[in-house]
What does this fold into?
Amino acid sequence: MKILAVIPARGGSRRIPHKNEKILLNKPLIAWSIESAIKSKLDRVIVSTDDVKIADIAREYGAEVPFIRPEELSGDKMGIEPVLKHAYEWLKQNQNYQPDLIALLQPTNPTRTTEQIDEAIKIFEDKKPDSVVSVIRATANNNPYWILKKDKDDKVTLFTGEPLKKIITRSQDLPECYSRNDIIYLLRPKNLYEDVPNLYGEKVELFTMDDKYNVDINTEEDWFIAEQKMKLLESNKK
It folds into this structure.
């Protein structure tokens, strides 16, 4: 299979200015995703960016930057599906390249390893789904069966809509639920062409990971937590 990795990295981060260029431990944030990807079984690794400096950094670390992402696909309210679709169609039209699968690697989780990418590919090869999604098991207070919500009339219920008196009292009895951790989304391109373009398709396989790989850098606090987790992961290798 030809598998295209797309690392989306726009330049207009607001909460952490120039986030993808910022040095995390000893290298730019985006470099962590590039390095794990180019050592894996992925066919090609491209960075989709609207920023020339990010493009230069990406090339320095071994990724391809065959185009600069159009401005209309680079706003902070833009979903990821149009970005992936643009990359897929650009490569098809300009390089006659059509991958069988697309691997979305979000740079906001720099804990990703080459082994995890290859394991996701193996899951796909074994199960042949429409997508493989990396997740962690939801902890008790983040499980939707323990999450509360308030409606427009200020009535509080469980997230499921059940009244609070029906709450499951023991964490051991909670249904197993999962949170995405943005390590990898591995998907068939056809998912991007459904009536509602999406990453998942009909048949989804979960790639369940340890909570230590749950990182999502959007704020300065997230950045600090990511640094500490990555230092711990590195020390555990020794």
Notes: The chain has two domains: 3-137+177-237, 139-176. Residues 3-137+177-237 form a domain with the Spore Coat Polysaccharide Biosynthesis Protein SpsA; Chain A fold (CATH 3.90.550.10). The longest strand covers residues 178-187.
